[in-house]
Structures are given as C-alpha cells and as structure tokens.
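Co-fold these.
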Amino acid sequence: MYLSKLFIPLLKENPSEAKIKSHQLMLKTGMIKQSSTGIYSWLPIGFKIMKKIEKIVREEQNKIGAQELLMPTIQSAEIWKESGRYDDYGEEMLRIKDRQGKDLLYGPTNEELITEIFRSSVKSYKSLPQILYHIQWKFRDELRPRFGVMRCKEFFMKDAYSFDLDDDKAKESYNKMFFAYLNTFKRLGLTAIPMSADTGPIGGDLSHEFIILADTGESKIYADKRIFDIDINEHQNNQPSINNLRRKYDNFYAVTDDKFKKEDFTSKVNKNNQLTTKGIEVGHIFYFGDKYSKPLKCSVDLKDGKKVYVKMGSYGIGVSRLVGAVIEAKFNNNIMKWPESISPFDVVIIPSLQKKDDLNFEKSKKIYDFLKNSNIDVLFDDTEDHLSAKFKKFDLIGIPYQIIIGSKSGENQFEFKEINGKTDILTIEEIKNKLNKKINSN
RNA sequence: CGGGGCGUAGCGAAGCCUGGUAUCGCGGCUGGUUUGGGACCAGUAGAUCGCAGGUUCAAAUCCUGCCGCCCCGACCA
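Predicted complex below.
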C-alpha cells in the first residue's frame, strides 16, 4: 500500500476531547472517528488492527473446541422477560419498539438468546458438552462513556457460552476458556492476570476478570507478584494440563477491589510480593450453573430418562476495547510499537523523496515490490514530506519495522530499523528473511 | 442522574466581560528554496461564529429555549 493512497486522516495536534493516550493516539493516527458519545466509526487502520485481534481471539477459541456462530444485534424482549432480566438489567439496556409496537432491544449480552437456541435444538445428554461463541457488536447504554473505545456504548465483543451436564464438567469447560484466554492475550503481546471478581448482573459464584496492567486502568488490583512467573507454555491443550494450570493460578492471591480484604492480603501474601496497582479489564469469565437454563427451561434427557438443567458459563473478551488497551500497555516515550501479530502493516518503507523520479524512489519501489511479492504487508511512504517529519509520523503509527531509504546506505544495502530499537544495514534478501521469521513466530 | 465546563475554518485556539460583521497557529492548495527527528519564503482557498427565537440602528459578543460535546461523582465489560 502506498501511503498517498491510504485513507488515514492524521492529526498533528491532540483533539481536545481526548484525555488518555490511547484515545489521543487513535484519533491522531486516524484509527477511529467519534460518531456520538460512546459510539465510534472505525477507519481503515483501526479496523485492520481490530480485525487482527478478532482473528487471534477466534483461533484460540477454535483451539479449545469452541464453535463459532452469529447471533443478531437486535433481540426480542420476550426471552429477556422469561429470564427476568428485562426488568433487572435496567437503564443500560437500549430498548426499541418496531412499527408493530413489538418490544425489541439491542443486545448487551447473549445468555438468553443462546440458551433459547440451545434448548430448542438439544434434547439429549449425548449432545453435551458444547461451547458456542460469536463475535458481534453489543450495546450498553453507559451512564458515562469515556476513554475512547475503552469504555463506550457500542463495542465489539467475543462472547462464548458453555453447556455441560454437571458442575464438575462445567468447571472443565471454564478451565478450558481460562487457558484459551491466557494464550489469546499472550499472542497479543500482553501480560494478563486472571483475578477473582464479582459477578455483577451476569450472576453466578465463580468468576475471573482478566486484567492487563496499565496506570490508566479503571480496576484497582491486589496481587501476589509471583503470579507473573507462571509459564503457560509449560501447559498443553488437554484437560489434565489445563486443570493443572488453573490450580497454579489459584495458588496466588489476585483480586480486584470489590473482593479485596486487607486481612487476607497481608496474611496470604509475603510483604515483598505484595503488588497494588491498576489495570484494564479485557476479559471476564463466569460460571453460573442453571441460572438461565432453569427459568428458560433448557434441559436435556439423561440415560435414565430424567431431565437435568444444563450447567452454563459465559466468557467475554472486549475485542474493540483491546485495541485501546494494547496502546495503553505498549505506548511509551511518545512511541507506539504494535505487537507484530496485530500491527497494521508488517513493515514501512520510509524514503527521503525530493521528487518522484529520485533514485530513492526507484530503490524503495524495488524493495516494496519484492517484499509485497513475498507476502509481506508493506506500507510505502511515497509522500514528499521531510524525512524527519516522516519519522515523527511513524513513531505514532507504530509499525514495528522500518526500512529507511536515505543517505546512510549503499546501492544494494538497506537500513532496517526496529522502532524504538537498533538499526542494521542489510540486503534485500536478509530483510525478507528477517521479516518472515518475525511474522511467522506469531 | 447530580456538580462543573465548553461549542468560532479540517485540527488547536483568541475575540465575548465593555455589541460595530472575525483573528492567529497548524493543516490544505500553488510556486520556489530545503531534506536523517514534525524545515523556510511568498501567494491562495477555506467560517451562514452549534441551532432557534428575542433585545438593538447593529449580535460571535447581551437575554431565553433547545441540541451537542468534555470533565468530576455515583454505576459498569
């Protein structure tokens, strides 16, 4: 892609409405545009990053055997009346009437709908266990949206739902999701900690929030530092290994504000290991048994002919929120560096260009075509901005690798720079190999 | 929803108190000079001052209503 052709409305100054760095950066680099309070349009660069995050989330869900489907954004109020949440959910639910006066709502979550789908098609214990998920827009009419895409009304979320026969099996599904989440966040270049949390309006008695550390986070957290030493790579994708991983995390104290008790913290965690900080919630998993299957009468027949309500859990990841969360975690010293796995481009060519027919343009074009033909997603800054202006620009856009075409390299040599890191003089082949290695390691 | 604040060109601001038909920087466009950390010169385009009503000879400025947006709080992925 040539930069001159890319729809990327860059801003030089901070828009006055943005108060935190991820929001400012997303506006400055033309990733999003606010449409109304808490509602955003996603412009090409922002959309591309979000899609890459979505892809990783999807792959990790599929790995644990979850199956993707797609439920609508607009739901009928009927099933919500059945579960009792039509009244309980409150003002956060956006209620709509169609022209016949029928009560509809823009889905804030999907427990009711998935349960309705499941109960109408599954009748036998033989069909369990099952995990279903979708990645879809949600709407919650927040009292006060803020922080750009981190806390908005309309947001893109992966939500999964597990169906099991009994508590023990259900907890195995829960643990699978626990494992998938840790792998997902790791691939996004994030360190996420699972923490015991309150269940809120979803309900249930077992719940973990997955939190990444960031000063601007809304969640206050208390944890045992040793929790960061757990290596998920030591665990395989099978139930015993997954259960074992869950147990490892349970050994260390880690809670959010609402579950915090000072006595517990001081008695369970050695003073040197006590960590009190702030973080951003990027995922939340719940086990709530028959809370929805019972009122919605979602049961299956057992071997002996008896009926049992299915045991359910639900599992969310804020995909759109993650875009902002990654920036909060990765933006430092006014330089953004996207993890390779979700960068809007693999590499950018930054030439000094006086005129389009300059030798630098030919040299850039040569490596651009070569890399592009090698399936590398490359951006070519073909504008005539000053080189120094280009550097500033790409400090914000955050593409992790740069090829600089200026006066510091010979005819068949290229300056290859890792953003915020060191510069090497390499040949065209060496660059290709290096990039392929970086890309394929994700 | 309570408290506070803001709305002037694509972006950031000044002007408003003390009414006289809009100013500056960035960005855009043209030409020239520059070229390794947001360069310089010259020229040029771009605003029914959030909307509606009122006061006045005259309203960005004063008054009323509405809309939109931001911040703090309570609440939440």
